[in-house]
Each structure stands twice: as structure tokens, then as C-alpha cells.
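FORM 12-B: Structure-to-Sequence Request
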């Protein structure tokens, strides 16, 4: 089976310079939700783009075939733009870039039913209390599909039907190609409706979906908010049923790809995005943002930001720490108030607890980084590494000018600027000699008062 995603719509009601399908839901572009579920059912995926072609193209994997719909002439016309993707003897699943929450299980059911019953097409429907705006499913007395009528073309009686077309369907590709040549834009919108192709099929089956959330479409920012809230609650209910404590789900945001272990506590106003994995017995938040991190067990992160980092067991982070890409913290590390790390490896039992910047740095075991320490890793053109060996002690307010190495068991005096390597078991001082000029201030004041 192949998958064709229609994502060419303009999305006028979003009132945005950004294409609708590029708007984010839980920090992930809407279209990528659809692509990821498509990748679970097929290796052959194509997408039809229109408005904001260049913007959306940047969000899409290179192994996905892209077609462009230059004119907005309806859903069937969008499929026509990808006609080369339809292969005789194959089946094609049609998805939509603004219907992001369709599940793998539903698509798998749709596909298996389609094959088992040898249907020309298999359509996914849903019953809505308010079906306004959706195409109505018209069936015969034997519950077989007769046609689908778009809302603007529906009669008064047809508008009362609450079973609607979700747009998601599987087709025999050769049947679909043949029927596309037979439809016309003779309707209220003057468009080529994909739903008209069902008039030319011999056997179309309708599968009614129970979970409406899976097929909620998004047309404006209010719907974007409402749909995101619903999917957030589903994600968090699943996590809580699996043993995670979420103190305040209404102020917490967790992406669907996040994995969290048993007995971990997620405090209020916490944002966890991307492919993050969090172990057991952790305490995360409040006021914390984590993206694409791997976090071990018994980790505590308080009021901090972590991105593209790996954190081992029993680590304490925060408050107000910032772990940037390439940070690796081994077991029992402590990173504290206003500490920033980037491309830095801190080995077990080491700590940097106050007002520190560590960039392009290796820190050995049992190292103490004093308050106000910074690694000067950038000379305006290139970046260099700082290496701090095991059991070193870095005094407060030290500047380590990379490239530089601090040897094992060495001690750096507070306030030092270190520009050369420090041997093992050594004391390094890199500061100017203090000079006290007695009575200088008093004499200065007296001279100023005399006008001298």
C-alpha cells in the first residue's frame, strides 16, 4: 500500500503567513503528525503541497515524494497532481495534512478490511452531533454507500444526516485513476471533489470510527487550541494509567513520542517535547522545559531547560540551569543555579552548582567547579576544548581559556585566568598581585575639596 497526503490547502482562516500544516501541535508541525503515522503503515509516501510550498518542504523527510498543486481546484485535483504516484495493481491510502491524530490502529483496521473484502474503496466515517461543514454519508437500506454529498451541496434532509465523511479512505489505484477522469466541477464550489469518485465504484465499504478525536480537522487557531487540548489530555491520561504522576495536567504539555517511567512525578508548568525518554522515580519541574533528551532514573530537574542532552541516574539539575545540545551528565552529577552547558561531558560525582558556563568541555570524576567559572571556548573564529581531569578543584571566578588542560588532583586559585595547561597535583594561580595604597581614597577626597 502507498500513502498520499493532501496538504496543499491555503488555510485562510488561520490568518497566518505560515501554511496551516506547518503550525505546531505540542511543538511538532501538524503535517509531521500525519507523516509519522503514514510511515508506520507504508514505506511509499507522497505529499501534495500548495500554499507555502518551500516552508512545508523543509519540514518533510527527503525520502517522501513531493508534488505541487499550483491551482486550488479541489481534493480530486490535488490527487490528479500526484497521478504518477498511483500504480496499477496497488492500493493507495489518502490522508490529510490537517487531520493530525489518526492512529495506526485505525489505519490498520481500514487496510485489513479493504483487503479482506476486496473493496474498490474503503471509507472512514464518524458520527458527529454537529455535522456542519462535513460531507454526508448516504447509504442504501443494506448499509452500502451510495454517495457522499458535500455540505454545500446537501439538501435539507441530507443535512440532517450525522454520519460524515472523514476524507480518509483506501482506494484501488487503478479504479481511482479511471474515476478521476470522469468527474467534473459541477457543484456549489466549482471544484473537483474526490468524493465524486465513489459514484463510479462497484464496491465501497464504510467503516464508522468511534473515537472522534482521531479525525478532528483544524481550520483556525481556535480549533488548533481545542484539538491540542483534547490530544494533550489523552496523552496524559495514558501516562497516568501507566504509573506517572502529573500534578496538574492542565498546565503540562507532553508530546506523544515522550516516554516516562513508573513513579516519576511531573510538576506543574512543565513542557516535555520531542523524542524524550525519562526513567523511573524522577521529579521533573515545575517551570521546566525538556526536548529530545534521554534521562535516567532518580533524576531531579527543577526550573530548568534541557535539550539534546543525556542525563544518567541520580543527577540533580537546577534551579535555573540550561543544558544545551551535546551535554552528557554521568551518575550523581549536580548542576545548579544559573549553570549553562554545551557540548560538555561531566563525569560521575562532579558538580558545578553556581553561575557557571561550560562549553566544549570534558570534566572528570569528583571535580568541583567553583561559582562564576567560565570556559572561554570561542576566539571569534574557532571553538576549542577545555579538559579538566579527575579530582580537580576549580576555584570561584576562574576563566579557563581554551584550549587548555587541567591535570588530575590540581587546584586552581579563585579569580584566576588560566591560559596554559596545569600539571597533575599542582596549584595554579593566574591573577595580578594585589596592591593596597594606604589612605589613597582619603587623600583623593581632600585634594578634590581643595580644587586640586
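FORM 12-B RESPONSE
SEQUENCE OUT:
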Amino acid at each position: 500500500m502507498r500513502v498520499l497526503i493532501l496538504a496543499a490547502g491555503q488555510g485562510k482562516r488561520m490568518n497566518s503567513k505560515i501554511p496551516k500544516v506547518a503550525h505546531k501541535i505540542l511543538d511538532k508541525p501538524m503535517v509531521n503528525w500525519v507523516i509519522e503515522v503514514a510511515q508506520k503503515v507504508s514505506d511509499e509516501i507522497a505529499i501534495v503541497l500548495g500554499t507555502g510550498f518551500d516552508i512545508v518542504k523543509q519540514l518533510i523527510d527527503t525520502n517522501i515524494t513531493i508534488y505541487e498543486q499550483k491551482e486550488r481546484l479541489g481534493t480530486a485535483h490535488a490527487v490528479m497532481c500526484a497521478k504518477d504516484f498511483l500504480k496499477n495493481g496497488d492500493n493507495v491510502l489518502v490522508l490529510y495534512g490537517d487531520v493530525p491524530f489518526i492512529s495506526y490502529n485505525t489505519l490498520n483496521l481500514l487496510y485489513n478490511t479493504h483487503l479482506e473484502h476486496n473493496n474498490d474503496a474503503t471509507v472512514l466515517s464518524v458520527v458527529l452531533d454537529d455535522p456542519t461543514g462535513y460531507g454526508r454519508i448516504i447509504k442504501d437500506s443494506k448499509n452500502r454507500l451510495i454517495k457522499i454529498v458535500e455540505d454545500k451541496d446537501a439538501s435539507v434532509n441530507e443535512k440532517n444526516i450525522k454520519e460524515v465523511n472523514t476524507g480518509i479512505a483506501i482506494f484501488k489505484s487503478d479504479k481511482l485513476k479511471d474515476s478521476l477522469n470522469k468527474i467534473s466541477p459541477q457543484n456549489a464550489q466549482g471544484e473537483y471533489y474526490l468524493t465524486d469518485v465513489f459514484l463510479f465504484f462497484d464496491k465501497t465499504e464504510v467503516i464508522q470510527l468511534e473515537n472522534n478525536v482521531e479525525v478532528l480537522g483544524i481550520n483556525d487557531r481556535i480549533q488548533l487550541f481545542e484539538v491540542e487540548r483534547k490530544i494533550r489530555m489523552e496523552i496524559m491520561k495514558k501516562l497516568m494509567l501507566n504509573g506517572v504522576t502529573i500534578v496538574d495536567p492542565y498546565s503540562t504539555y507532553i508530546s506523544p513520542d515522550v516516554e516516562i517511567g513508573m513513579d516519576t512525578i511531573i510538576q506543574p508548568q512543565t513542557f516535555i517535547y520531542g523524542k524524550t525518554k525519562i526513567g523511573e522515580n524522577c521529579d521533573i519541574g515545575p517551570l521546566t522545559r525538556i526536548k529530545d533528551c534521554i534521562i535516567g532514573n532518580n533524576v531531579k530537574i527543577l526550573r530548568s531547560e534541557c535539550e539534546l542532552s543525556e542525563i544518567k541516574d541520580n543527577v540533580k539539575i537546577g534551579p535555573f540551569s540550561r543544558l544545551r545540545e551535546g551535554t552528557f551528565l554521568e551518575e550523581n552529577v549536580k548542576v545548579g543555579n544559573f549553570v549553562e552547558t554545551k557540548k560538555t561531558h561531566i563525569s560521575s560525582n562532579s558538580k558545578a552548582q553556581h553561575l557557571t558556563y561550560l562549553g566544549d568541555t570534558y570534566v572528570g570524576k569528583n571535580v568541583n567547579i567553583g561559582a562564576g567559572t567560565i570556559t572561554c571556548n570561542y576566539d571569534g573564529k574557532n571553538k576549542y576544548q577545555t579538559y579538566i581531569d579527575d579530582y580537580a578543584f576549580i576555584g570561584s571566578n576562574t576563566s579557563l581559556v581554551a584550549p587548555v588542560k587541567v591535570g588530575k588532583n590540581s587546584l586552581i586559585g579563585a579569580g584566576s585566568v588560566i591560559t596554559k595547561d596545569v600539571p597533575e597535583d599542582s596549584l595554579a594561580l593566574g591573577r595580578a598581585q594585589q596592591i593596597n595604597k594606604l589612605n589613597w581614597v582619603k587623600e583623593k577626597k581632600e585634594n578634590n575639596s581643595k580644587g586640586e
